[in-house]
Amino acid sequence: MTEATGAGVPEELTVAVLGGTGPQGRGLARRFAAAGVRVVLGSRDAGRAGATAADLAAATGGDVTGDDNRGAARAGDVVVVAVPWDGHGELLAGLREELAGKVVVDCVNPLGFDKQGAFALPVEEGSAAQQAAALLPDSRVVAAFHHVSAVVLEDPEVAEVDTDIMVLGDDREATDLVQALASAVPGMRGVYAGRLRNAHQVEALTANLISVNRRYKAHAGLRVTDV
């Protein structure tokens, strides 16, 4: 199998991004497309997805198309879930058949906000990623891309996204692929960070980064040392 974008990323790989017209999904799609990965944007509105995809294709020179979330789920080999937490469970429950056999990358952070700032919400299954795994028993669920700033991802002036991506999952082949996908983006590095049962604290750490960003007026990421 040939590789084009980086070690471990097959040339023919298609990445679908559900919620691809929102800031996080759109930003990840931009970076994947710029790295030479074929991308399909998913949205509740196929027309909106198509228009956003056309803009990203023009901006990056990449292969980007759009569809509704169901069509995108069918098209992707790897499917990134970048939807708001309050619609997470309902969306995935309705796409179980389309996502069967696929690597599903959950980057959703279950967070609440009040006058004191962001805080982690309790999740019955333990984390958003574990909820995804429970709803998608025939998929290979990986947790990743929780801490990368949408503002940075979408900024065309940022040539390298200076951050490590914590990748969690129970399937070695799937986590290796997602690590390679992250590492295909200049500046990013995918780092294996444990089993899916440890996704809660990774998702929750986003609340701490939001506090860092507010205090220091920054778009902070993470680096893991000595690896």
UniProtKB/TrEMBL annotation:
GO biological process: copper ion import; NADPH regeneration
Gene Ontology annotations for the cellular component aspect, listed alphabetically: plasma membrane
Top-rank taxon: Bacteria
Keywords recorded for this protein, A-Z: Oxidoreductase
TM spans (from-to): none
MF terms in GO: coenzyme F420 binding; cupric reductase (NADH) activity; ferric-chelate reductase (NADPH) activity; NADP binding; oxidoreductase activity, acting on NAD(P)H
SUPFAM superfamilies, sorted: NAD(P)-binding Rossmann-fold domains (SSF51735)
Domain Pyrroline-5-carboxylate reductase catalytic N-terminal positions: 14-110
One Pfam family cited in the UniProt record for this chain: F420_oxidored
Name of the protein: Reduced coenzyme F420:NADP oxidoreductase
Source organism of this protein record: Geodermatophilus nigrescens
Lineage: Bacteria, Bacillati, Actinomycetota, Actinomycetes, Geodermatophilales
